[in-house]
Amino acid sequence: MTTDNKKPTSQKTDPNNANDNDKKRRKRKRRRRILLAFLVIIGLGVGYWFYQTIKWERAIQAQLAEYRDAGQPVDLENFDPPAIPDSDNAARAYSNAATALTLTPEQRDQMFGPSPIPVAANQTVMLQAIADNTKTLQLVLEARTMHGVDWGYRMRSPLFDQPFKSWAETRTLAKFLGSLADHYHHVGNDAAAIETVRDIIKLGLTIRKTPTLIASLVAMATDSIACGTLEDITHNLKISSSPASETAHPQPASRAAVESFIQDLLDERELQSVTARTFYGERAYSLDCCNLVVNGKITPDDYLGRLSPSSPIIKILDYVRIKAFLPKLNRDTLRILQDLTALAEAAQKSNWPQAKEFVPPASDQGILDILSFPIRESDTEIFSRFLTLHFRLVAQRRMAAIALAMRLYEIDHHRRPAKLTELVPKYLPAIPVDPFSPASQPIGYRPDLPRPILYCASLEGADYYKTCTTLPAETDGLESWEKYGTLFFLNGDRPKPDEPTTTQPQ
Fold it and tell me: Does the pTM of the predicted model rise above 0.85?
């Protein structure tokens, strides 16, 4: 029996197979490395997202703490007025007066329609309006001695959903009081005319105690009515050194009342304070809305006030976008807080050139601004615009004060002063500064024109009226005062829109 001792045959390795396996191993390694690198990048991105989010959230909290330490109102409850009795609440009195005001369509058209009828030809209408509104006039009279202000508005989150007070009735009340002051002046009761104009000023200040932009704009229009009324009546205002009796007719304004009014118009501390508070209120509004957005408690539809809600897919995409750009949104929130704080500081300056240094520059939109959710991006321009209107009102108040002082001088000297310096120090402590003059020049005076004027420089500081021989085609309105400056017509003869304004020096 024989045994076969067969040797195992050796297998030869296919070089092509080995290369293929090696390539597969390298590909798997490369994929793992790419995946690992991708995961590292994602991890670093998420870590950076968390770092930036926490960084800007802490920066916001640190900034808010700084505002609180400075005594500025930050939390919504800080804007609540103190508790006051109804008997001392001027806001309640004015609100009831506005509600009680009853005017027929004819009275509205003739008193403050597009083409109001002059007071001299409007006495029957005015007398009937006065007789119909004794309750309104009594409430306005009572408000003179009230010091508290509570319109019933409370800043509570979510602020975007809080109903704002409609100021339509209050605006109508201010217009009615302006017409009433003109009427009192026309019938010779200048004591009542001056007190009624002071009522309008107090009404505007009372409205401003509501820390919202819309309330301040309404108050600004109210103050402009008061200054416009003074422009109409000051040139022939009757003033007596001793108060007239209540039954005297005609009844001039007392000198003491006019001098007190001049001081009130030139004392801008409370006006500056409440205007700054408006910016603080808007700062609280912005912070509340930003917090609601970044925390996902409101949608972009809610925030932007869209009339129709977005589709569910759009809402999901917006939510993802908000979360993805959360660090930038927090940074934008901080910027908005700082911008509004700077504007509040600007409002407390005496003149526009000083205030302009605090106005934040307009920011250009970058790619991140387009991709991310914009938080009130355009509001800085709106607030800056409001600030310029604030200083226009300052100009109007200062010129009205000068005009009243000039009237006192004219009564004493039987002529107007040749220069405003003649009013110092008896009638004015100093000539008020033009709030738009880059060099802090005093308010200008052109007695040589057929329509004598007080004037201020333009928004950019141009002194057009100093040497002009022709008034612009329009002497009122937004474009006119920004381009040429603000005017006060000392003879109460402001040109009507369709009236020629050419004025050659005499």
Answer: yes
Residue 490, pLDDT > 80, answer: yes
Distance CA 131, CA 180 (A): 12
**What SS3 class is residue 379?**
helix
Write out the H or E segment, with its range, that includes residue 226: helix 213-233
Task: Give me 34's structure tokens.
Answer: 């790419």
Type of residue at 460:
E
- Report the distance separating Cα 323 and Cα 340, nearest Å: 25
Give 58-95 pLDDT, tens digit per residue.
Answer: 999 999 999 999 999 999 999 999 999 999 999 999 99
3-state secondary structure of 182: helix
The DSSP 8-state label assigned to residue 378 in this structure reads T
Burial degree of 221 (CB within 10 A; 0-12, 13-18, 19+): middle
Percent helix, strand, coil in the chain, to 5, is 60, 5, 35
* Burial (CB count within 10 angstroms: exposed 0-12, middle 13-18, buried 19+), residue 302: middle
Closest by CA to 455, choosing from 464, 443, 447, is 443
Is residue 432 a contact partner of residue 443, using CB atoms and an 8 Å limit? yes
More confident residue, 87 or 327: 87
The 444-446 sheet, strands edge to edge? 444-446, 453-455, 487-489
Instruction: Please list the residues that pair with 253 across neighbouring strands.
Output: 239
Q: Which helix (H) or strand (E) holds 102?
A: none
- Of 13, 63, 5, 134, give the one whose Cα is nearest residue 335: 63
Beta-strand relationship, 253-254 and 239-240: parallel
DSSP-assigned states of every residue in 382-416: HHHHHHHHHHHHHHHHHHHHHHHHHHHHHHHHSS-
Between CA 448 and CA 430 the distance in angstroms is 22
SS3 446: strand
CA distances from 187 to 113, 251, 293, 489 (A): 22, 9, 58, 22
Identify the band that residue 293 occupies on the pLDDT scale cut at 50, 70 and 90: confident
Separation of alpha carbons 448 and 228, rounded Å: 22
Distance between CA 1 and CA 61 in Å, rounded? 101
DSSP assignment letter at 84: -
According to the 3-state scheme, what is the secondary structure of 291-310? HHHHCCCCCHHHHHCCCCCC
